[in-house]
Amino acid sequence: MLQENDYPISVQFDFASGTFDPVQIRDDRKLSDLQMMFHDPIIVNNILANADPLIYEIWYHPFQTSRSDMALGVTRLLPGKIGDEYHMTKGHIHERDDQPEIYFCVRGEGYLLLQTIDGEFRAERWTTGTISHIPPMWAHRVVNTGDDLLVFVASYHLSAGHDYRPIIEKGFRKLLVDRDGQPTFVESQRWT
Question: What are the tens digits of pLDDT across the range 146-177?
Fold first, then answer.
């Protein structure tokens, strides 16, 4: 017998704004939520002394039935930099290491950074229309290197979970910084 949440459901995505309706959860991530992710704590503290700028928003809709779960997440990553480092998402690896994720860049440009726990690093260049499969056991973070909003849609199992601890402790092997107006990868001192 079908339960109430076992019936099909749809949400309406607005490509112009990068939002959807109905949304069940909205999570704003400000600089204070990400201060440990940026490489220059002096610049971070100087900014936080005067303001706490919004870096990105996540719009969630968990689709849970009596037999399964699936999540829709839409992230709106604002353009900008903290010092020379571009705005980025916090980054995570899944608590269940057998779980993949799909990201679809619907607006903007940047990079999807990927890294294994052992430090194998990859970067996927993103432009509008790029769809990326994130295999199990790869941490992931998105960086906005453009002058416009970067919007991406994520789909994953809720049971995958999010583990931020490895990223908070050591970050990614490479940082994406502005060098003479160009996005440039540099080695993170936390890994050297």
Answer: 999 999 999 999 999 999 999 999 999 999 99
Q: How far apart are CA 187 and CA 192, in angstroms?
A: 8
pTM exceeds cut of 0.85: yes
**3 found inside a domain:** no
Residue 96 in domain: yes
* CATH number for position 125: 2.60.120.10
